[in-house]
């Protein structure tokens, strides 16, 4: 049985005050909730503060990006070793915002995946099609291409203990989530695609859905057999909404 993971991607939001308030609210609301792994990915500036604030709770620390270089003259970057040093565990890579605004290629994202595995960190590999690709019927083609960049260079074993987040670009921040049936169909495709290389790895793989997940639609999404939690943007900035999403994942796991 897979353990769902609900992770909050704060994106470019937050302050010292907000970090303190939000984590205090989550600690309080989530104590005693089990059956779901929980992680938060604040901006890199607040990782140390967040690390201290989650101490002793079962909330894990995540980050939103990593550089492909280990150290050296790479102004503005943050390495895998630094993220590990500060206590981060789950690292988002290949988010569509980075693919779009920072022109990150499938190959670059695969290199980041390898760097994280080498550092003993957990890659959360984001994949997903744009609206135009969706309308052109290219969802499966895009998702398999983005996964194959890792599968074909590192092998299926690299996904052991890793996470894939299916985030259709048209659903991110739009309030227009994929329907549970739409998301389930793509998740099943992804799991089957990995299973062609390694069935055991595919069976264990955590497949999160991301894109306008909120406290209203979470339970229905998590009731789908191949949806193992969520990568949450906007709703992760509010303790009550994020808590409700975590509880929905825990309930779905306990019911299933
Ligand atoms: O991009 C996302 C998480 O990484 C999803 O963002 P929203 O939940 O705000 O749609």
Structural topology:
Elements: E1 5-9, H1 16-30, E2 37-41, H2 47-53, E3 59-63, H3 80-85, E4 90-93, H4 96-101, H5 106-118, E5 122-127, H6 131-135, H7 139-154, E6 163-166, H8 180-195, H9 199-204, E7 206-210, H10 218-222, E8 229-232, H11 239-255
Parallel strand pairs: 1-2, 1-8, 2-3, 3-4, 4-5, 5-6, 6-7, 7-8
Helix pairs in contact: 1-11, 5-7, 7-8
Can you tag this structure with a few keywords?
256 residues; alpha/beta; TIM Barrel; eight-stranded parallel beta barrel; 11 helices; 8 strands; binds 1,3-dihydroxyacetonephosphate
Strand content: 5-15%
The largest pleated sheet is described as:
8 strands, parallel, barrel
Question: Radius of gyration over alpha carbons?
Answer: 17 Å
In CATH terms, the superfamily of the domain at 1-9 and 60-67 and 77-236 is Aldolase class I
Mean of pLDDT: 97
| Percent helix range | 40-55%
Q: How would you classify the helix and strand content by structural class?
A: alpha/beta
What string gives the helices and strands in order? EHEHEHEHHEHHEHHEHEH
Shape assignment:
globular
Protein name: Triosephosphate isomerase
GO molecular function: triose-phosphate isomerase activity
Pathway: Carbohydrate biosynthesis; gluconeogenesis; Carbohydrate metabolism; erythritol degradation; Carbohydrate degradation; glycolysis; D-glyceraldehyde 3-phosphate from glycerone phosphate: step 1/1
EC number: 5.3.1.1
